């Protein structure tokens, strides 16, 4: 349980973080409720409630997770409710300062998701998470009002209404290999929009990121390959954007372009500066 608050002068970002974690311990229960044949002992005995809230100058995120820890050989379940609000600058941002930065285009995304995560037992190098969630996305202007088109008159949602709804089945796999001289990371995400209702978004989307780092004396050579594609219905905010740190340096987020598919390869050599 804790709280954190950061305030800076000028235009710096203000961060407020509140984290509350509560363990429902079986030892606090009456003996009659800790009977192995009583369903309450299975429901309450090893549960964990996690609540966190992050507030920035222009964005916010509230997360409530109810986790059910299990043995290491079994998958861990989490029931999650999350709401976030953030500016959408990757697709609807406005390039400024000769495309080196992306400013707000007056479009913010309000996302509400409710669902379940299933974390598979991790091997020595592989780990994976499967989730199914209902998502409700609403574009808002800077005054917090619903909007369906941007400043140029283009639609902001796939449905054409002020909001999009979808049920998303997601599989994420991660691979990590590290030693004293190099590392290799690989991440693959596959999403499927489930056709529960005809008005909801139906799509197939995948995204991958592979990075390799090699230590060359005091320097570090980093090579990165990322890409993805989406088939089916696509809301503008689901498009892949190119530009920014981790994509194309020197350009703002999304300043290079965006679309249904993308492939980006880059290499960087980092040298320490001794003062």
Kindly summarize this structure in a few lines.
The protein has 275 residues and is mainly beta. It contains 1 helix and 16 strands.
Produce the secondary structure layout.
Blueprint: E1 2-6, E2 15-25, H1 39-44, E3 46-55, E4 60-68, E5 76-87, E6 94-96, E7 101-103, E8 108-119, E9 126-140, E10 164-178, E11 182-194, E12 203-216, E13 219-232, E14 240-242, E15 257-259, E16 261-270
Antiparallel strand pairs: 1-2, 2-3, 3-4, 4-5, 5-8, 6-7, 8-9, 9-10, 10-11, 11-12, 12-13, 13-16, 14-15
Description:
By secondary structure, the protein is mostly beta strands. The protein has a twelve-stranded antiparallel beta sheet with strand order 1-2-3-4-5-8-9-10-11-12-13-16. A two-stranded antiparallel ribbon has the order 6-7. The protein has one domain. The chain has one helix and 16 strands. 12% of the residues are buried. The protein is 2% helix and 55% strand. This is Outer envelope protein of 80 chloroplastic-like. It comes from Trifolium pratense (Red clover). Keywords: Membrane, Plastid, Plastid outer membrane, Viral envelope protein, Virion. It holds the Pfam family Omp85.
Please summarize the sheet with the most strands.
12 strands, antiparallel
* Share of β-strand residues: over 45%
- Which structural category do the helix and sheet elements fall into? mainly beta
Taking the alpha carbons of the first and last residues, their distance comes to 39 Å
Element pattern in H and E = EEHEEEEEEEEEEEEEE
Helix fraction bin: under 10%
Question: How many DSSP helices?
Answer: 1
Tell me the Rg in angstroms: 22 Å
Q: Compute the number of strand runs.
A: 16
Structural domains: how many = 1
């Amino acid at each position: 349980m804790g709280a954190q608050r950061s305030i800076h002068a000028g235009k710096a970002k203000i961060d407020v973080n509140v984290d509350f974690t509560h363990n429902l311990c079986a030892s606090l229960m009456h003996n009659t409720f800790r009977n192995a044949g009583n369903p309450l002992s299975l429901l309450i005995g090893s549960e964990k409630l996690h609540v966190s809230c992050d507030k920035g100058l222009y964005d916010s995120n509230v997360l409530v997770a109810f986790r059910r820890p299990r043995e290491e050989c079994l998958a861990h379940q989490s029931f999650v409710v999350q709401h976030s609000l953030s500016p959408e600058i990757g697709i609807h941002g406005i390039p400024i300062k000769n495309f080196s930065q992306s400013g707000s285009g007056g479009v913010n995304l309000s996302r509400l998701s409710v669902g379940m995560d299933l974390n598979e037992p991790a091997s020595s190098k592989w780990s994976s998470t499967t989730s199914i969630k209902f998502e409700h996305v609403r574009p808002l202007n800077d005054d917090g009002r619903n909007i369906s088109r941007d400043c140029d008159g283009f639609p902001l949602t796939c449905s054409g209404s002020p909001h999009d709804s979808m049920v998303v089945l997601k599989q994420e796999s991660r691979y990590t290999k590290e030693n004293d001289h190099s590392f290799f990371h690989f991440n693959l995400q596959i999403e499927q929009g489930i056709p529960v209702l005809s008005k909801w978004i139906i799509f197939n989307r995948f995204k991958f990121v592979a990075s390799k780092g090699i230590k060359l004396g005091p320097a570090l050579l980093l090579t990165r390959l990322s890409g993805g594609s989406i088939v089916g219905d696509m809301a503008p905010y689901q498009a892949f954007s190119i530009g920014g740190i981790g994509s194309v340096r020197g350009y703002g987020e999304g300043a290079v372009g965006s679309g249904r598919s993308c492939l980006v390869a880059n290499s960087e050599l980092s040298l320490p500066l001794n003062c």
